Amino acid sequence: MTIEIWLSKIRLKKSIILIVLSSVFLLFILVVFTSRAVKSQRGVHEPVQSLQSTFISSLKQVRTQKPRPLSNSDQPISEQNIPADCSDSNTFHQQNDVNQTLSEGIILQEIVKPFGVADCTEIIFIKGGSFRMGSEIDSDDDEKPVHTIQVSSFWLGKYEVTVAQFKIFISETGYQSDAEKGDGSYIWTGRNQEKRSGVNWRCDARGNVRKFSEMNNPVIHVSWNDAVAYCDWLSRKTGQIYRLPTEAEWEYAARSGGKMHTYSWGNNLPGGRIGGNIADESLKRALGWSSICDGYDDGYVYTAPVGSYQPNELGLFDLTGNVWEWCLDWYDSGYYKRSTQDDPLGPPSGTLRVLRGGSWYDEPTFVRCCCRGGDSPDSRSGGVGFRIVRAER
Fold first, then answer.
1. Domains plus CATH for the chain?
2. What pLDDT shows up at residue 188?
3. Could you tell me which of 285, 282, 289, 278 has the C-alpha nearest to residue 360?
C-alpha cells in the first residue's frame, strides 16, 4: 500500500506539472498572436503616423535651436554632392536635416521617401501670412494692381522636380507624356525655337537625350497635364495631398515670405552664386543672345542642376530662372483686379495655365518674382518644368 500511494503521488505531481506547462504554453501563444494583430492594425496607418511624428519632432527641435548665419560650409548643391538617384542621401541629409537654418531664421524641412528605392523628395515648410502681391514698379499690366493676399501654411518643394524623380514616376506608371503622345516638344536650335518630333522629358533643351550625369537637372518638355499627373501619383504613393503651387503661394515663397524682393535672392542684380540660371554672358557666347544680364555669367548655357545657386531666405532653390514653373491657376491678365483675399485659386476657367519664375533664356525683367506668364495646359518646351506643394491638412 505504501508503494502504491507513493506512485500515485508521483503521477499526480506529473499531471500537475503537465497542466502548468500547457497553461504557460497556451498563454505564450495568446500573447504572440495578440501582439502581431496589434502590429498589423497599426501598420495600416504607419505612413501617416510617421509623417506626423516627423513633423512634431521637428517642431520640438526647432524650438530649442538658435539660428546660425549662412557660412562657407553651406555649399551650393551640385551633381557632386547630391547624386541624381539620391543613393548617397544618408550623407547628404546629415548636412541638410529638419534642423537646417539660414540667416533669416529656422528652416523646417522634411524628406519624403515613398518609392521603395533610393529617391528623395525634399519639401520646406512655408509658414502662412499676408503680403502685397504684384508690382507697380517697372511692371507689366497683368501684375497690377498690387493687392493684399493671405496665404495659409503649406509645404513647397525645395528644388524643381528632377529628371531622375520624373523617371521613377514614368517607370512605375507607364505614363505617356503629352510630348510622347503628340508631336514632340519645342527645342532651341541656336537661332530659333522649333518643335521637333520625338523630343520629350528624357531630353535636354536642344532635344538630345540626357546623359546619366544630367539626371539632377530639372525635368523639362513637360506640360501642365504631365505635372498634375506626377502630383496625383505622388499623392497616391504617400497618402498625402500633393499638387502644383497656386500663383499666390509661388510668389509668396519666391519673395521669402512676401518680402518686397525683385528676385528670389533680393533686389540686386545677380553675382556669382547669389543669383540664378538666367540669360547671361555664357548664353551670349554660345547662341549670340543679345538680351542678357550684362556682365553676369552663371556658368550654364542651358538648364543647370537643381540647387546650383544659393537658396532664398526660406531655403528654396531656383525660384528665379532655370525653368519656368507651372502653377495650379488658370491665367487671366486682369485677375488681380478681382482676386479674392484669402488663398486665391485664380479664375474658375480659362485657356492658359500660369507659369512663373522665368528660365535660362530670360533676361532680368522676365525673371522677377512678380512677372506672370501663361501657356496652354498641353504646351511643353525646353524651358518649362515644375515643383510640388504638399497641402496642410
1. 74-391 (3.90.1580.10)
2. 85
3. 278
CA distances from 90 to 56, 157, 170, 237 (A): 21, 19, 25, 22
Helices (H) and strands (E) in the chain, counts: 8, 15
Residue 327: phi, psi to the nearest 5?
Answer: -115, 165
* Edge-to-edge order in the sheet of strand 154-157: 109-112, 121-126, 154-157, 389-391, 242-243
Give the pLDDT score at 138. Answer: 86
pLDDT score of 142 = 97
CB 385 within 8 A of CB 219: yes
For residues 79 and 260, give the distance between their C-alpha atoms in angstroms, rounded to a whole number.
Answer: 32
| Pairwise CA distance, residues 291 & 208, whole Å | 25
Q: How many CB atoms lie within 10 A of CB 64?
A: 7
pLDDT digits (tens, 9 = 90+) for 345-381: 999 999 999 999 999 999 999 999 999 999 999 999 9
Q: Are the CB atoms for 126 and 104 separated by under 8 Å? A: no
| Residues β-bridged to residue 111 | 122
pTM for the model stands at 0.74
- Do 378 and 227 touch, CB atoms closer than 8 A? no
pLDDT exceeds 80 at position 209: yes
For the stretch 97-106, pLDDT in tens is 323 333 334 5
DSSP state of 234: H
